[in-house]
Amino acid sequence: MSFELILQSISKYIQLTPVESAHFTSLLYTRHLRRKDFLLEDGDICKNSAFTIKGCLKGYTVDQNGDAHVLNFAPPGWWIADMYSLLSQKPGTLNIEANEETEVLLLSKTNQEQLYHDIPKFERFFRIITENSLVAYQQRLMDNLSLPAEERFNNFCKRYPSLVNSMSKKDIASYIGVTPEFFSRMQARMVRKA
């Protein structure tokens, strides 16, 4: 198993010695998911943070009418979890599903707590990525409340450039908060303007 991608990601925020890197990677385990497999389902207690190595995960909720609302994607190099459930250890509301063949590295909450004890600089790393996630969610909420759909789509393209051509229109429409039909019409308008 190659841990190169996750170690590169971590090195943007903290520097690890070879011994620390080896200890960290010893706490991870790999999970392979086929397209449509769930990493986490609504009502489950989230016990792991997941780091995508290959493929893509999407996090979404389903409303009372059965409509899915995509909250985030985790392409390679991204972390994903139901943060409410992970931190509270109560049943969550997030579904995390593979959009395609996906490989993730999982870090259990227990191992993460052990990591904070063994290598305290990991507290800094996870604080930074949690803060970045909070900022992104806040910005997305403000965008959804104040920006037209075209600008929300442009922001999606900036945030997830690798996904623009690989995600289904339905998932992108759900992420930006429009119907698939509206999304198709909007894309056609944008093409005509270009």
Protein described:
The chain has 194 residues and is an alpha+beta fold. The chain has a domain at 4-119: Jelly Rolls (Sandwich). Helices cover 47% and strands 21% of the residues. It has helices at 4-11, 18-26, 83-88, 109-118, 121-146, 149-159, 169-176, 180-193; strands spanning 29-33, 38-40, 48-54, 57-62, 68-74, 79-80, 95-98, 102-108. The strands form two sheets. A four-stranded antiparallel sheet has the order 1-8-3-6. Strands 2-7-4-5 form a four-stranded antiparallel sheet. Helix 6 (149-159) crosses helix 7 and helix 7 (169-176) crosses helix 8 (180-193). Residues 31-116 form the Cyclic nucleotide-binding domain. InterPro entries: cNMP-bd_dom, cNMP-bd_dom_sf, RmlC-like_jellyroll. This is Crp/Fnr family transcriptional regulator.
Question: What can be said about this structure in brief?
Answer:
The protein has 194 residues and is of the alpha+beta class. The protein has a domain at 4-119: Jelly Rolls (Sandwich).
